[in-house]
Specification:
0% strand, 8 helices, binds zinc ion, Helix Hairpins, HscB_oligo_C
Amino acid sequence: MSVRSLFLNQFRKQSLFRQIRLASCWSCGKDVQASSALFCGSCNALQQPAKGDNYFKIMGVMESYDLDETELAKKYKELQKYLHPDKFANRQQKEQEISEKYSSLVNEAYKTLLEPLTRGIYMLRLRGKDIPEKTEVDQEFLMKIMEKNEEVENAETEKEIMDLNEENKAQIKSLQKQVSKAFFDGDMQKVIKLLGVLKYYTSIDAQIQASIRSKGIIR
Ligand SMILES: [Zn+2]
């Protein structure tokens, strides 16, 4: 057998091996029933997340801007319970590594999908788009935002800050509805524009939450 045919044979074997591996357990080699299964049905080894799975698939929630945050939090707790690195302390080294990587991937996915702004940006990226570094907003809008910033800075009483909180949350909710509709309509230009606006209200929200914490307000 020539070197070349030896090489080709080897190559064929390897690519065949790779194809089989996609649906089989890395530990025992048996077929894993569903690509979304966390553990092998035969040897119970923790599986790698399926290649190409986006954050929605990883979290096991429907891919939609209107995701149910309670459902997302429930899935998150469930996954982290199964993936906790402590559970793999006495298992094979490779399984420990998978659990660590998988667990941090789940953290990242959860954090990204939970916030309306980062969720929107992530969904845009799944569609090959992004929001520009500098968003174009009109002067009047910027003035309004600056005024809000000042109001938050100057809020002293609990009532003042909580009123601002309520008002800003309502603003974010309303923008969320508009973003959702723009995604539904497939109008990515509009999504980009709305997320640019949402960015400002999200930073006001961060400012308000910091103020609430520093004032020791318990809700
Ligand atoms: Zn197995």
